[in-house]
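User: Can you fold this complex?
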Amino acid sequence: MSIIKVKNLKKYYKVHEKEPGLKGSIKSLFSRKYKEVKAVNNISFEVKEGELVGFIGPNGAGKTTTLKCLSGLLYPTSGTVEVLGFTPWDRKAAFQKQFSLVMGQKNQLWWDLPPIETFILNKEIYEIPDNQYQKILKKLVKLLDVQKILNIQVRKLSLGQRMKCELIAALIHNPKVLFLDEPTIGLDVVMQKTVRDFIKDYNKQFKSTILLTSHYMGDVKKLAKRVIIIDSGTLLFDGNLQDVIDRFARNKIISLVFSKEINQRELAEFGDVREYQYPKARINVPRNQAAKKASDLLDKFPVADLVIEEPPIEAIIREVFTGKMKSSKKR
Amino acid sequence: MKNFKKYWHVWWTSAKLSLSTNLATRGASLMFILGKFLRFGFFIYFLFVLGDNIQEIAGYEISTIFTFFLVFNVFDLFGQLFFRGIYWFRQQVISGEFDFCLVKPINPLFQALTRQTDFLDMPLLIVVVIALIKQGISLNIQQAIMLILVSLSSIILITAVHTAVAALGVLTTEVDHTILIFRDLSLMARFPIDIYVDSIRAILTFVIPIGLIFTFPAKAFLGLLTLQNGLLAIFASGLFFYLSHTFWQYALTQYSSASS
Amino acid sequence: MSFKKYITAAKISWENGFIYRLNFIMWRVRSVIQIITIYFLWLAITTKNPNSFGYDQVTLLTYVLGTSLMRAVVFSSRSIDAQREISSGDLNNYLIKPLNYFKYWLFRDFADKALNIVFSLIEIIILFFIFRPSLFFQTNILTLVQFLLLSGLAMIMYFYFSFIISMTTFWYPESNGWPQRFLIFTVLEFLSGGLFPLDILPKPIFNIVNLLPSAHFLFTPLQVYLGRISGSQIFFSAGNMLLWTVLLWALAKFMWHKGLKIYGAYGR
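Assistant: Here's the predicted assembly.
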């Protein structure tokens, strides 16, 4: 049962281009040039209940725009979207009570008041009964460990503490669907881990469907089995993270430790030498030849240790984005 | 001399940037200019309506009242034109941007006040000055000198006020209203401050020198300013300038940089 | 439809107002300065020129202080913040919630007006005891009721009027909507009767000005209070006000729907 259905979604924007400098400013008084930006250009996918899906793409890929369409914030240029059986931009209260959107940089906590006040306001807005509110609040506060800061003014909190409270404010109504837009942006590594762990636990405990966008591979690696890769408004890949590797990784990496000095140029004949610092070396070889090359290397060189590895997913994705691969959809 | 050239260059460069910004937001700029002219025009019309019904206010004929209003605008616009930066100063202090001002080889007070030059006040200022010239001046040499000196005093006083506001901004970042309070008080001087009761007039002359800034030059323009009062204005400008500057220096010593 | 969410919003809006004590005091100081400015202006004008504008000094001073009080009730609003929320995209936070944006701001404005009127009353009473002007106190109950009703209507009128200005930021988000807001403030300064009673204007001009919604924010209710409009005239004015309220309400709803469609178009 698909809880989110997106079909042929398109969203185009008009942007005004200005020439730089004082002359450009004066020119813009008289005539303005507009160009059309295809933020989302024909995307389709479906998500089942309880899934945790990661959207990855570089900045400006269309991830946030897609989420905004799913939240009902934007009217698409064309295409259909259905979430929990509703059309998001109808903005029915019944729909809004069941989903939540968290945007990395946009805050909903009242700046000068303690976070608990915003929680209470949201409780009333979402019409949550008292006991349910208390139960969920307790669970969330425990998961995020924020007991001590609930009554401190938001502006006095650190960025990490604020983010945690923003999450609680967004989840106090126990949404069935959660959209997270760049949730770890601007956070330090410790906070990033905390937020990722929380999202994973939340997905498990509350069984909610989660869509998250990010340009950090770390978020996706840790959280999502299924990824959707978007670039320049088009969907490049939709499937398991593992399949990304299988499909797009052209190479494997062979890591070597030599027992005796060798001729680096000879090594280069076997493949693309990424690193050479005696006694260690790393060399890229075409995927399907990896095993053969490995055995050849063992024959030719005095090798003390040899490991065949997948390239880091970041490198694969980068290759996907820089268009080394033809775009293709898979489902 | 070299120093003066440097400051002139810095000011002129940031002024050009301000102008560019205004031109880039053409709709906004036009609306602001329109608003300023409307505000001016409405009030002039209001004075006309008053003039249709009454002869004088507090001993001044309505035509003289016009002059007071025009002179008020000259100095009011001057402050807004050159010291627009003060309206963004609080933001600079809170965000920590002010740190950058402090480490640059340019007086930080200068940076804070002149960061933005509001050319949108220029059109109205030109109109006001032309109107004043049309009013016609008939002063002898002494009175003319007095006018120049008192006008300079006004400019110095306006600078002093903005300096004090900036100092207050460094000390207690919550003070967005102070400059607006000054503007509200300034509005009291659209009419000669003689119309107010003695106690209030005293406050407007000796405590927050609105009267010195706006009414005195107007009186000088009309040849009505006594030598006594002229000297008072000059002396006061020096005093306030010194006090505000001391206050500013003190504020800097108390400055605690914002954290992220 | 539960109103509890809007009452809660009003409550924490009230709380929020008190947080910055210094800011709060400054705001009151400004309010007092504005009252004093206008009071002394008219005191000076009417002292030498009694009965010049069709008003005697007592009536005029009552008018001036009355409009100062009315400002606190009619013009005070938090809902100006809506223009910033729309320009910056913070509106998103509200659009995803089951919350009526209009009602939300209406209730927050009520909280603000309640706060304002308490303090304005205190300030005016203190000023009254310092300067001891002779004022006119309306005693006719019916008139007072009419005055209060019209004041209430003025508040609602202004709410929609102000919201319409905020919503122009859907189309012109530059500078968070301040250009248009400034322009409107300027016009309102003169056409609402805050600086001077509108009927000192020459008759033909006054007739036009009196038809505009701005005339009813301060001027019309106070004219009723002072007993300068009565009988059928009141019905005419009240009818005018009602008509404007409905028009503004309709325009606001219309702009909201159109505006939201545009909202996404420029990628905020």
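Chain C touches chain B through 39 residues (CB under 8 Å). Chain C is about 70% helix and 0% strand.
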